[in-house]
Specification:
The chain is an alpha/beta fold and 144 residues long. It has 2 domains: 39 residues, no CATH class; 90 residues, Nucleotidyltransferase, domain 5 (2-Layer Sandwich). It is built from 3 helices and 9 strands. The strands form 3 sheets. Strands 6-5-4-7-8 form a 5-stranded mixed beta sheet, covered by helices on one side. The protein has a two-stranded antiparallel sheet with strand order 1-2. The longest helix is centred in the N-terminal third of the chain and has 21 residues.
Length: 144
Amino acid sequence: MAFTDQRGRTQTSLAEINVTPLVDVMLVLLVIFMVTAPILQTGIEVNLPKTRETKAEQPKPKSVVVSIDKDGNIYLSTKSEAKQVNVNDLAALLNDALGQSGERRVYVRGDGETPYRIIAYVLDLAKQAGAEVSLVTEPTVKKK
């Protein structure tokens, strides 16, 4: 598109994209994602044991996750809620959670300092509920 000024000369308009609003929107989105990303991770803080060989499979947001902290407290996480449960009620709650999620996999996150007998008991309860059990660990960093 051309313009004529008062002296009769023809000038063309500049067709440049103004990137300032684009940068502003991208920075706002970055801040939103940085704030919400830690919230989306499921729940209870445990120090997972480190192993060399781990599967890349991690719990999905809708998965059933049983977390055991170093004091032996058991937490059941389904969808977006995590609540502390009594070990005697765990089998019934797992049956309900597996029925609601439609998935047959239970992820067990046990703290590295948790006595093995507690983790073994939770694994046994999950298998009795008819679930496939996956243990969640952290990979060790390989030195090159």
